[in-house]
Design goal:
Elements lengths: L2 E5 L2 E5 L2 E2 L2 E2 L2 E4 L4 E5 H8 L3 H13 L5 H4 E10 L2 E11 H8 L5 H20 L5 H6 L3 H23 L4 H18 L2 H5 L17 H15 L15 H10 L7 H15 L6 H15 L14 H13 L5 H12 L2
């Protein structure tokens, strides 16, 4: 249901078409997103504009999305009576539209949620180009291995989508993970030609100590207003130094910063060393470890893994089988290459 047309020098995209007709939005080709006003979003979901405004305020207040990254202001000339007046109009990108769609209660919004899940599944099916004939004929063991990694990682994502009713933020995060992951691999021809990128060889200079982990947990508990069992160790006989050692014992000598960070996230989320808060603590330790070792930001100064993508990764880890650990570790490493 994607319909892209060029009108003059502007691109328009009908992203979602209800049975009675489509809504047209402005497309930002460079940023690979689209923009819509509150009025357009209200029209899309067949609700009053005040409903959209309320949901957007809650989305930003709850920090599901960052307003500065998902909302932009643009001056537009409008006809009011017999006058032409310049007004500043806010427009919201696809992430915001999806998040609103998961909050609105209307028949059209329900259809939109069904449609968005369908699009996610189609993205999985078509987002990675896998030529089975070439794959069967290939003698390049490394290429075959990496393509199987792609297929395995996408299978985990597909299962999570099928088995869970995702929130708007989770859906946006899954889309981002898939887009970055599949973009890093490109097509099978690049694999067979040996053009794929390997994980950076950058080694860590700083490891998390028990004291640092404990202080981070205490600070997170206080900021979230949680009780003492949040971040308390499951085994009362252990202390945080043993947690730090347990995390380090999961490393291999050849592990890069990216792989160590991925293992920290996976082990805390999946093996749950704390009574409560494993997902939040795992995410925090992951981000802090990357920052300590200067791998959190890209060369452009942007966060390599956004908050919503991290939320999606935590969900994927939680819902995965233990046998899929290697696939998820590799997926995270590929995202950190971006």
């Amino acid at each position: 249901m994607f319909q892209l047309e060029k009108t003059g020098v502007n691109y328009k995209l009908g992203i979602y078409q209800a049975p009675e007709g489509g809504i047209v939005f402005d497309v930002d080709v460079e940023s690979e997103t689209l923009w819509a006003t509150q009025t357009q979003i209200a029209q899309l979901f067949d609700v009053d504009k005040t409903v959209i405004s309320r949901h957007l305020k809650n989305i930003y207040r709850e920090e599901e999305l960052e307003e500065e990254k998902t909302c932009q202001k643009r001056n537009e000339i409008r006809t009011e009576g017999e006058r032409q007046v310049k007004r500043e109009v806010k427009r919201y990108n696809l992430d915001a539209i999806i998040s609103v769609g998961y909050r609105v209660s209307s028949v059209k919004a329900t259809k939109f949620r069904v449609w968005s899940n369908k699009i996610l599944k189609e993205y999985i099916t078509h987002g990675v180009v896998v030529n089975k004939t070439q794959l069967a004929q290939s003698t390049d063991v490394e290429a075959v291995k990496r393509l199987n990694e792609v297929k395995g990682a996408m299978a985990i994502i597909e299962r999570v989508i099928l088995q869970n009713e995702l929130s708007g933020g989770e859906a946006s995060g899954v889309i981002e993970v898939m887009a970055k992951y599949t973009k890093s691999f490109q097509t099978i021809s690049e694999f067979l030609n040996g053009q794929f990128l390997l994980t950076s060889n950058k080694r860590s200079r700083h490891e998390l100590s028990g004291v640092e982990i404990e202080n981070l947990v205490i600070d997170l508990r206080e900021k979230m207003g949680e009780t003492d069992d949040f971040g308390a160790l499951v085994d009362d006989k252990n202390d945080f130094e043993e947690v730090a050692k347990w995390l380090r014992d999961g490393y291999e000598v050849s592990d890069t910063v990216a792989k160590k960070a991925a293992k920290i996230l996976y082990n805390v989320v999946k093996h749950e060393p704390f009574k409560r808060g494993n997902q939040q603590i795992g995410g925090l330790l992951f981000v802090v470890y990357l920052a300590m070792n200067q791998l959190q930001l890209s060369s452009m100064g942007e966060t390599k893994i956004s908050d919503r993508a991290l939320t999606a990764l935590v969900l994927l880890i939680s819902e995965s089988e233990f046998s899929e650990e290697g696939l998820l570790i590799d997926l995270i490493c590929k995202l950190l290459e971006q």
